[in-house]
Amino acid sequence: MKRSHLVAAVVCLGAALPAAAQFRKLPEDAIKHRQSVMTLQGHYVGPLFAMANGRVPFDAKLAADNAEILSTLTRLAWVGFVEGTDKGETNAKPEIWKEKARFDETARKLQDDVAKLNAAAKTGNLDQIKAAVGAVGQTCKSCHDTFRKE
Ligand code: ASC
């Protein structure tokens, strides 16, 4: 292997380093990252909740667009839950790291639920969207009840 290739390979590996390497300043940057992502998740899921419960008129295109973006957003927050970042300006409970397997399982479930919501939204069928949004909302809530302060 040429030396320049070796260097490139090592640099690429850097992208897959442990989560702590993603952030320059801990805990602030990790906390800010996950809070920013979750703020966006709220913005994109909000209209889906509102359409599902009839607060706003159903708009199939908006629902499909939001669900698609949400399916990407839902992959992003987790890298921000770096060990030791329950200290600082955060509502994250230490239980996230004490019960990491359970937390990871809930994160996995949210991604599965959102993938189903995305599929439902592409059909344009409001009843399917309602069912899928309901599951997403329950998963958000169960994780927040267990792992978020107040
Ligand atoms: C949101 C938000 C939550 C969840 C939850 C779902 O948009 O801020 O905490 O959805 O309300 O039940």
Question: How would you describe this protein?
Answer:
The protein is an all-alpha fold. It has one domain (26-80, 89-147): Cytochrome c/b562 (Four Helix Bundle (Hemerythrin (Met), subunit A)). The chain is 67% helix and 0% strand. It has 6 helices and no strands. It has helices at residues 3-14, 28-52, 60-73, 95-98, 100-123, 126-147. Helix 2 runs antiparallel to helix 3 (60-73) and helix 3 (60-73) packs antiparallel against helix 5 (100-123). The protein starts with a helix and ends with a helix. The site of ascorbic acid has 7 residues, from helix 2 and helix 6. Residues 42, 45-46, 137, 140-141, 144 line the site of ascorbic acid.
